[in-house]
Amino acid sequence: MDNVNFPEQEYKDFFGGTIGDAARADAEKHRLNFAGTTSQAIQEHQSARRIAKLKDAVSQVNALNDHSHDHGHKELGKGH
Prior knowledge:
The protein is mainly alpha-helical and 80 residues long. The protein is built from two helices and no strands. It is elongated and about 70 Å long.
């Protein structure tokens, strides 16, 4: 139960504690790079979209493979 694993549990002591660390980390995650084109948050979003598209493509291929086997097509190398 520390502020690294649970950033919402910020504390304040005589030296300032961790108040503002979570906000600073969030701002850094969304800060654009030097060229002003992407941030870590944008890259994570694009990566998640690519993964979702790949999963969709895999499910479509699997559905087509299952569909072709349901219609009695001969598998290669069998029944010749």
